Amino acid sequence: MTAAGAATESDLSAPVLTGADRAAPLSPGTRVEVRSSFDRRWSGGFEVVEASGDGYRLLRLSDHTQLPGTFKRDDIRRERRRSGHWWY
């Protein structure tokens, strides 16, 4: 936030997690969104394949490809449900 109370761009891109979402581990089959390391925006269309001490292995649903590497819990969140409106 700025001194005047307006939200900055970094405030708007910060993850919005509830207490339960932050603490709860994600089990295989959970649909998630992934935070881009480039612009810090969230992208949907992924699913947890495996959870380990190193992080989470993910599957991209569009082509059923397992992504290389692992993702930290801070870089994924449960998929947000859309409101059903065409513009959102």
Key traits:
mainly beta, SH3 type barrels, 88 residues, 5-stranded antiparallel β-sheet, 5 strands, 11% helix
Structural overview:
The chain is 11% helix and 31% strand. The chain is mainly β. The chain has a domain of 52 residues: SH3 type barrels (Roll), CATH 2.30.30. The protein has a five-stranded antiparallel beta sheet with strand order 4-3-2-1-5, with no helix packed on it. A hairpin with a 6-residue loop joins strand 1 and strand 2. The longest helix has 5 residues. It is globular. It starts with 8 loop residues before the first helix and ends in a 10-residue tail after the last strand. About 15% of the residues have low confidence.
Task: Estimate the global geometry from the Cα principal axes.
Answer: globular
Number of helices: 2
| Total E-strand runs | 5
Helix and strand sequence:
HHEEEEE
Strand fraction equals 25-35%
